[in-house]
Batch of 2 targets.
Target 1
Amino acid sequence: MTVFLQSLISGILIGGVYALIGIGLTMIFGVMRVINFAHGDIMMVGMYLTYNLFTLCGIDPFASVVICIPVMFLFGGFLQKIFINRVLNALPQNQILLTIGLGLIMSNTIMLIYTSDYKILTTSYSSGSFRIAGISISEPLAISFLITVIITAALYWFLMKTDMGQAIRATAQDREAAQLMGINVKRMSVIAFGLGTALAGTAGALITPTYYIFPQIGSTFTLKAFVITVLGGMGSVIGATLGGVIIGIAESMGAVYISSGWKEVLVYVIFLLVLLFKPSGLMGKSRM
Amino acid sequence: MKKYSVLMLMAFFSAIPSLSPAAAIKIGVINSITGPEAPIGENLTNGTKLAQEDLKKKNINVDLVWEDDTGKPQIAMSAMEKLATRDKVVGVVGPYTSACANAVAKLAEKYKVSLLVPAAAKEEITRQGYKWVYRMNAPADVYASVLIDAALSMGKPKTIAFIYENTDFGTSTTKTAREYVAKKGIKVVADESYSKGSPDYRSTLTKIKARNPDLVFMVSYVADAILLMRQAREIQLQPKAFLGGGAGFTTAEFAREKEISNGVFACTQWTDDVSWPDAKEFARRYKSRFGKEPTYHAACAYASMMVMAETAAKAGGDREKVRIELKKGKWNGIMGEVKFADYDGFTNQNRHQMLVEQIQNGKYETVFPLIFATKKHLYPFPKWQ
């Protein structure tokens, strides 16, 4: 029983970070219909930003989220304005090539600067944990989960309650109609891409205290983000949250009850089953 | 008088060119220079560079052709094809990882070029009866046996748990470990492979904790070693000893994480305080040149390059002769005695004595076998704080 609860909690905690990655990707897709293959690499940039803030300025990885969000937002806005905007009406394969290319440029630039050495952050709480009823909970994971919940809630409030959030949702639902209603869709695109980038960067910042970083780390997370968003339904924020947690739990349970080497198989079996019975993903079509 | 000395000088200088050897010997190097394996690959690169300097001192002029395999077997294979057919090298040293070395071994046999593998552990590499494939380091079976022998000499462990990366290196090391503990009467209570790069090993470790093993045997590359030990501490996995099968557990980065690495045993091909000839001198030079502690990979690469270049120089660049000379030769250097022998199904395998080291206060200390020990071992594993 302890083993079961332990793996369930580990799964939920890690799933929170996965959800954050997925939400970023799903927002970008929802508003622009562009599949961002540079998502994992953007997350990697966030990781290196956090790493530098910690080693050079001594800012705690969790506190650095406050810096990470605006910096990554501007970075995302810049990417959208200079690159993505030009291919919005192009063929999908051209959009994919562009984002893959951007990802390659990011990972190789980082490799030139920092070499491909693994970097690992050591904070006072890196291997700390506390126990509730015999189950040990990782301190850094618990904190990052808490931050994830706050950010997701804030994002949800922003999308549902504010004018700008509603404008973003309108753009996601029907770009032309939104434009006819006087919404500046170009601006909404920049904001959506900035938000998506900021979320990916934040996920990177949150995972650095418990993980290690290297320039090629992005591809693992791009794939994961992709599975999460498709599982949850492309364009759905709630779907991505759900998808992230499901993937987290599946990995954790798979490692315990099947084998760590087979946990990915379990993840993809679930993924395929969902697609088989609900091809549009758990939360249906773009509903933001 | 003055005229005479000028003449002498002229005679002296004109004599110099005749001293230098005729043509440079072309030797290929395949290594992981970029990619995920690059942090360890760098040690091999540095070791090879020191060998190149020493060869120059010995008046052996080598022309090294560097190839980067980025840690991928298919790229290593095309590198080998290029070296064998286009660059026409007399011998190749490398590649680093087991997967790459195993793939390249087949090609060495096909193109009839001597391949000297410096640090890959997978047993099969020298177990397929290949004539052209040599290996400097001890293969995976020794990794496991030397660690378990050390554990048995320190206490009476009855159960063991395995956790290893599902790569060539991880699975082959664990396979031989399983066979070896069966012989010694130790029971396997958990057997977990994982795919690297996963951020969460807690659930796997929890499962192992529930079985309460005396020994935990781990095989991982660089960063996963730190991650595994961190999460082991988190969930308070408390065996009598943690045994690390080389690679990630023998890096300076790992030792620096004192909180989690203190007391962990690791097996290694080489340490910088071992009494083999010039080992200490090599460590000193390496540190002053590259500003880092040398790992066993560096020593393996250095010794391999020395052996290959000296043999190639002696054979005068003839591939067939290089192969025969490697088989016949005997060397003594920073890796101890080197001789390529056939035994227990292995061919052209150097019977290298492995060492066991333990991290004490953030430093690696050799603790086993006792003739090489520099410090007393710490057993059982101290309680987590």
Note: The first strand of chain B starts at residue 25 and ends at 31.
Target 2
Amino acid sequence: MRSPYRAMLRSPLVIVVSVAVVWFIASFLVFPNVNLLVTTFFPGGQFSGRSVEKLLSSERAMTSLWHSLLLAITLSITVNVVGIFIVLVTKYFEIRGARVLFLGYATTLIYGGIVLAAGYNFIYGRYGFITAAVQNVFPDIDPNWFSGYFAVVIVMTFATTTNHMLFLSSALAKIDYQTIEAARNMGASTGRILWRIVLPALRPMIFAVTVLTFLIGLGALTAPIVLGGTDFQTIAPMILTFSKSSSSRDLAALLAIILGLATIIVLAVMNRVEKSGVYFSVAKVATPLQKQRIRNPLAAVVVNVVSWLLFVVYAAPVLLIVMFSFLDSTAVITGTIALSDFTLANYGTVLGTPAVLRPFIVSVVYSALASLIVVGGLLFVARVIQKYRNRFTTTLEYLLHIPWILPTILIALALIMSFDKPSPLVGGAVLTGTTVILLVAYIVVKVPFTLRLLKAGFASIPDSLEDAARILGAKSLFTFRRVLFPLVLPTAAAITALNFNSLLDDYDAAVFLYHPLYEPLGIAIKASTEGENNLDSMSITFVYTVLLMIIMAITMYLVYGRSAQLRTRKAHGRRTRGIRVAQIPTRAPVGHAPDERR
Amino acid sequence: MITFDNIEVTFGEHVAIPDLNLEINEGEFFTLLGPSGCGKTTALRTLAGFIEPSRGEIYIDGKAATRLPSEKRRVGMVFQNYALFPSMTVRQNIAFGLAVRHTKKDETNRLVDEIADQVELTTEQLDKNVSELSGGQQQRVAIARALVLKPRILLLDEPLSNLDAKLRVQLREQLKNLQSELGITTVYVTHDQEEALTMSDRIAVFNHGVIEQVGTPEQIYNRSNTEFVCTFVGANNRLAPALLSRLGLDAARPSYLRLEKVSLVRHTDAAASVPLTGTISERSYHGAFSTYSVDVDGSDLRVTSSETGVTPRAVGSTVELFVDPRAVLQY
Amino acid sequence: MRTRTLPAAVTVLVATSLALAGCAPAAESGGSESGGGEPGGTLIVYTNSNSDGRGEWVTAQAKEAGIDIEIVGLGGADLANRIVAEKNNPVGDVVFGLNNMFFETLKSEEAITAYEPAWAGEVDEAAGDPDDGVYWPLVEQAIVTVYDTNTVDAADVPDSVADLWNEDKYKGRYEVNTVLGQATPQLILAGLLSDYEDEDGDLGISDKGWNQVKGYFQNGSPAVEGTDLYARLSRGDVDYGAIPSSGIASRDAEYGTVTGVVGADDGVPYVTEQISVITGTKKETAAQEFIDWFGSSEVQGEFAQEFSSYPVNTVAREQALPAVVELMESLPKQELDFALIRENISGWVEKTELEYLP
């Protein structure tokens, strides 16, 4: 530990992983993007600072930038409030129908983007049901009430609690129940226990998901376009427009870098706060969490009512989307729905198209390959980075975050332009125009998210397990395979599923990179909804969304439904003895020096 | 068998062990004793090969082992939290090291059954998931897992600290018995002086990364070399200067007297005992014996008394005490 | 391409899954090296004009004519970007459907190559690239400002589109498309600015011109993503909005509107969709054959009947739907200098995006 480099060099596995990751970073993260940025900022070999000037003098750019920041900050708060609430009511408090609630809240796992914003629009927008209902009571109300900052925040808050549902829930399950019992024994109220015991224990995970939420806020594209109105436009649409024009690309890159810097600052702040109060369970023997009853009857009623209201808010867009997919598009657009408007024609249009299945399969294969490769590869990288803290690994970690800084469009363009001639980095192959380049792009864009969550997954594994395996003679690969891998498998599976789902309908990368013979779903959807004479585009989007939701729901079921069954089975076994030792980390993660080095 | 030669261990700026020299003999049950943060676990982990010393050399069987990776040192280790692999059954945990060595299936089963028998794990328990076992059972799995590879040295890092008091005492004996049966050289880390005294052949008392004393339990207890060892191991009376003067001892030096060296009856062989008079201010009853606090001229002396056939003394009553000045430990 | 293992592996994987699912395409022969890779095999046709069933129609018709094509359909700006980015190792063989502006960009990037099609004599050369003949015109449409005569009183209709942003009573009553990455909004912008050329002005445009743009966007009602202009017209959200002329008929049918067109002083901007060979294609002959076939009066005529288009090919125009011809002939064409536009459009878009969008 004194000489981290020497320890690293001793393990052949670490060396192989390091070489591989350095190659990957050099070939697919640094080389293409530096290539692009150099041509962007140094047109003709001369540095051009015009983009800075342009941006500073544009009131609109500055305002949009501020809106994006404001949105990111607001969401960091609101999403945490709602996210923690829904995790608590489904996993911590004893609430009737918690399973149904969970399913309702989990709907964000399977939809998002334009469809979500549209769904909200149909409920709260100018011609929405709620607006109409409210107008009946208060005729003077502004029909455009659901627009601007407020509307964007509301929609995005409810749309982005996915990470809370997945990762905060699992962190909550790991809390040592005895600490809660102890607090209660000392007379602490439900609220106090929550505030002083449970939430502090969840802090590391809350920080982690806050960073993700912040990023989502910064990159917000669809919700502000649809619901922001003229008062609340964000920077992402501008970046998108500028990315597509070669002469304005420097502006896009600069804006993206500004957002990237904001992200890095937030990351650094979170890291610091995290370090100052590392929580780690000191329990030697932990008991599994049991659900808490809310003892104050008034509070119980309030929590129940709010939970079910939220359920409606969450579930309504999904139900509407399913309903809309069966509706005549004019009925949807004009907002007047009669029984006679229900039709199967939309499904007929989509499923009747020749080879409609093809894009689905192409996208499923690409998404599955990319998700498996990125998670599989980063499993090793995350472990190395998490275990050996030194300048080399820190640099690697920062470099692996590059795809978070640049928008997907720029990454895609950089890849095409950098691999359109034989490149020694990839063994002299030309990637542009092949099927592999889209796969590379998909892997690249999923690296940061995967790395962060996998690292967190490894941090919760006590080092002594690895020591134990080592002293028993296991080589690092064997240890990894037999000891560590099974422990991070649930996390890895969850990340794989999330990556898979988010890549399924990708458009940004595919549009530049897809191979003509293998058209992915995002392109197919876009093609089927575009066109001057295509008036059913909305309905067709809904049909595709429903189909996508089905695939995604199956994915989530495969990962979560099955592991949940497994967990229940284990929990039963555990309850009989009530003791669980092996899983509880008794030492701080490497890098956060505990007082005693054993 | 094991030699620490001028070992220095640092963590960044922090020097955990400045200069450690230690000899551990073949077949010995050797304990590293000290408060938390004293460097005892660091020493153990250095011996296991998890920590590389910044200076010095470790010899195992006379061969330099400092650079030897831990799996080549033929040491078995039981971790404080046992570090059982949660994803495996008990049998898989124990067989893990054998699987690494590609031991044949029959052989593996035989070895696992044999060691399970030795540590008293039932066949039924072997097929359970480790998380279904109690703490004591998990500890046995951890020991079995370490021993099944027939290591030359067994390292135990506070293996009893997770258990309740009664189980701890029980397992202490079992562990000691197992060790003497196998005759395996054992290095045991603990902060519990009672554990150290009852189990060890020899003890090294650690403080701030430095060994204060190495010796048999008797030496450590009765002839503590340093004030730290004396106060850390066993219960003491710290003697006030006035009392020291009455005993005819140097009143300026820090002085301690073990509780059991104060007597409520005059022993025939203790001719040199000095009689003192005091009032009982407190009594605590322990079943087999009682502890009294006696006020002697304003300073407090604690004394234990096994009270077979004696009427318990009441709080407030005056008693006569006998102290042998030669039993006083002065530093 | 020395190392082909990786791409080949991915291709095999994707292809196998497709085959297993029983929907392997006819055009499988190309493999991973199809596209600009090798002569023979499927011709890769890039277009932004594949929607409304056009792509399928062209593919089927071409097959009948003995040409195997695979359509890659993308939005105009995305497609142009892709072709430029791929120019060192082109994937596509032919591109059609983009407007003059994008073709000018492709030409200046040397991403397309000159070829004189067999039907060159049947089109007005001025509609394409009269100087170098790098790209050739196929169909034309106008970008018109429309309203629903059912709801808007004829007396209220402005004489000229410019009145919309210069007169207070239309404030917020007309739709403006703010997604300037797309082709149509770019063309509208170009149309607005072209009349105010001024060498001393910012980006070659006088202040007066920029004021027009400012007024246009500030007084307009931004388009709602996912909501069609005609849906907004029929709800009464807005009264006016711009749309390519080919989309009018189907919307009238769908929404029961009767479209009126607002006149323009200097005529309306026309979009001319072009066709060209992509530089570096290994199937140059096949690409040229496709161009000869697709641009021929026969195919263009059928295309016009099928998709209500207005062909540039004068012979084919005779087969165009009368309603289309009537509409197009009633719309005076704004004279646009596409070379100038091509040179400046990025700057214009950038300035508008930074300074004038709401």
Note: Residues 537-577 of chain A form the longest helix (41 residues).
